[in-house]
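Tokens as discussed.
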């Protein structure tokens, strides 16, 4: 059963406040929008993995994106938030909503752009991350682009050095204390990997060397594509 409008609004507000805790994170979503808009084919098919919350849809709606979008998330309540975002923009977006994982995308269906923003750091590095990246690769059309963002540390001790900067930013810009604490409490419990390990997994998954386009504290974003055989 879809969640109510009021609950959607409350959860959207929570998501946005969490995003405000990270300096410059809105800029990452704008860069993703620019990469999608710069695609050669104006009506390209786009797959948004982990679309719950609707942040990618919100950004694409600003630019009147006219391609076909598949919004995928394993959580039905989270996907309701994305639906709520899309409905706020009327018929400006052509979106298909799917509850599930990458494996639930029909075999043979390919996309010019696949986005995976802040998803993989929830998966353990016991084969799950590699399988996930292979699934993303398999959904890329020839010449397609993967846009991938993750929480990432070169050394986990970096958190101790970066946390005071993060807290100072939150204090200066009036970010909720509860939101900042939620972020800091979650980080140590995530199966985070280094940039070096990320590059190894991309190679093993049959993807090109990831090219970093964004970094803010422990958030990073890369682009990649299918590696030549």
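Sequence:
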């Amino acid at each position: 059963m879809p969640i109510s409008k009021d609950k959607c609004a409350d959860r959207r507000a929570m998501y946005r406040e969490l995003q405000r805790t990270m300096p410059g994170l809105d800029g990452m979503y704008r860069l993703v929008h620019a990469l999608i808009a710069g695609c050669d084919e104006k009506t390209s098919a786009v797959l948004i993995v982990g679309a719950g919350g609707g942040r990618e849809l919100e950004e694409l709606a600003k630019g009147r994106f006219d391609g076909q979008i598949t919004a995928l998330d394993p959580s039905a309540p989270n996907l309701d938030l994305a639906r709520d975002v899309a409905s706020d923009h009327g018929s400006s977006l052509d979106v298909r909503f799917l509850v599930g994982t990458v494996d639930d995308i029909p075999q043979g269906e390919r996309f010019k752009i696949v986005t995976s923003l802040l998803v993989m750091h929830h998966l353990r590095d016991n084969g799950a991350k590699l399988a996930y990246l292979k699934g993303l690769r398999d959904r890329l059309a020839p010449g397609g682009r993967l846009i991938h963002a993750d929480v990432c540390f070169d050394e986990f001790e970096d958190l101790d050095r970066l946390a005071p900067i993060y807290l100072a930013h939150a204090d200066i810009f009036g970010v909720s204390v509860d939101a900042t604490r939620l972020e800091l409490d979650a980080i140590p419990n995530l199966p985070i990997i280094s940039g070096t390990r990320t590059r190894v997994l991309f190679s093993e998954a049959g993807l090109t060397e990831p090219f970093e386009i964004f970094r803010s504290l422990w958030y990073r974003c890369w682009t990649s594509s299918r590696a030549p055989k």
